[in-house]
Amino acid sequence: MASAARLNTRTDAALLAGCVVLSLIAIALPSDAREPISGALRRTIVAPLVGMQRGAERWRSAWATSDARQAGADSVAMRAVNAQALVLENDQLRKIIGLGSRLKWGFVPAEALHNTTPSEELVTTLTLTAGSTAGIQRYSAVVAPDGLVGTIQTADPTMSIAILYTHPDFRASAVTADGETFGMVYPHTSGGRSAETYMLELRGVPTRVTLKPGTVIYTSGLGGVFPRGITIGTIVQELKTSEVWTRTYLVRPAVSPSRVTSVLILTAQRITQGTGNVWGATVNADSATRKIAAAGDSLAKQAAVLEARARMAALDSVRRATIDSVTRALGVPTAPAVKRDSTRPDTTRPPRP
Amino acid sequence: MNWTGAVRTIIVCAILIVLHYTLRPLLAWHASIDFLVVALLIGSVRLRPGTAALYGFLLGLVSDSLAVSAFGAAALAMSVVGFAASWLKAVFFADNLALNGFFLFLAKWLFDLIFLLVSQRASGAELAMQLFVWSPLSAAVTAVAGVVVLSLLKPLMEVRTA
């Protein structure tokens, strides 16, 4: 029993000694000799453990960088939103610059600050960053590249407040592109329907006139507040009212108040002298167009008349020649009353000796 | 130790080895848990000292294969720790969690001591810092983790007492 225990103890000691010796040999091995052994272990027994360690480290790095990546994604999203806003603003500014270059003079550029409170459902006023020191007066017209925005209600030295076409006090005299139908534009009360929140009404259109949907209406220039030819909007449909002698139409405004960030305020002198065809309106050019069309029509008519006369003259000549030959063949004496065509040589008689 | 006990011990050691290569990199603590030492001790106390030394040697080789610069150092340290754990279990080891924790702490510290001295990775103040600051911290964390593991796996384990 004691000898067996001694044997076990010796065996244990031998095993320990062997392990220690092998370990020391491994430590003492040159790196060239170590690498094949450790490489073989990594490729065989330790390979699954290496794979698990690699996966765990990936998880670790993914977890460690998740906040940074989330922050990066948030930054990218924010930049994308800002870029979209910048694109829209740039587009508006380009349009404003284009409008300014078309107007050339008589306007004051201003930024539009939206002062809508959360309780206010409808944008009816705008604060503009230009005031009376820049020449802005009450009732100066406020325009955007797309058309009419509103009118100045209060002009302080450095800023002013404009009422939009959605304001209950807003009125504008309007005319269709052909310049034949007039009316008065009022803000449309939607009655709670959000789809018609920013709509207008064209009232006072004579009953005999029917406007088709899509007809563009412009300021008429009557009243002296707005010059002629600023785009107001397009006809959407006729509204049923109690009026008998006039029609009322629903108008979709050309300008969306929520998107207005930059505007031009027309000076009084410019309003007096008009804006011309700045908004592409055919209101001012319409009469000239009609005159050109009428002139074209008259020329065509004259050409048609001349052509008809020439055709009649040719037919007369043929008819006379036919009658002469028939009468000569039958021996019927020709009436002396018939005059010959003095301008043409008489080829029917032999020449005199 | 009967066959059932041996299989259970092998399963527990395998789980601990897997944890060493999955949970440890995931935690990435500076004073990290050494699940291999826990696996070594859990196995060694159920083996004869010589066999425990061989078990430690093999476990150390696995560890060394991923640390080429110190190839053999972990094998030597684990052989010694395994042999010592198996030899001393009859003297000190008891079915007491606090004692087991202390035993784990000592084993890990001894392992780090041998490993750092043999591998010659550090010297001077850095070696002292490793031996007396980071190694005790790592040993403490390993002891706590070992105690938790032993508590969780107690129903599965069948500790052989002397």
Gyration radius of chain A, in Å: 47 Å
Enumerate how many helices of chain A there are, as a single number. 5
Task: Quote the distance from N terminus to C terminus of chain B.
Answer: 12 Å
State the secondary-structure class of chain A.
alpha+beta
CATH H-tier superfamily of the largest domain in chain A = Rod shape-determining protein MreC, domain 2
Largest interface: A-B, 36 and 36 residues
> Structural class, from secondary structure content of chain B?
mainly alpha
How far apart the termini of chain A lie comes to 180 Å
Q: What multimeric state do the chains show?
A: heterodimer
The succession of helices and strands of chain B, N to C, reads: HHHHHH
- Overall pLDDT of chain B, averaged? 85
Q: Looking at the structure, what is the overall shape of chain A?
A: elongated
Uncertain ranges of chain A: 282-289, 344-351
Our count of domains of chain A comes out at 3
Radius of gyration of CA atoms of chain B, rounded to a whole number: 15 Å
Overview of this protein structure:
The complex is a heterodimer of chains A (353) and B (162). Chain A has 353 residues and is an alpha+beta fold. Chain A has 3 domains: 2-73, no CATH class; 105-284, Rod shape-determining protein MreC, domain 2 (Thrombin, subunit H, Beta Barrel), CATH 2.40.10.350; 285-340. Chain A is built from 5 helices and 12 strands. In chain A, the strands form 2 sheets. Chain A has a 6-stranded antiparallel beta barrel with strand order 1-2-5-4-3-12. The longest helix of chain A has 57 residues, at 47-103. The model of chain B has no long low-confidence stretch (mean pLDDT 85). Chain B is globular and about 45 Å long. Chain B is built from 6 helices and no strands. The longest helix of chain B has 28 residues, at 125-152. At the A-B interface, helix 1, helix 2 and helix 3 of A face helix 1, helix 3 and helix 4 of B.
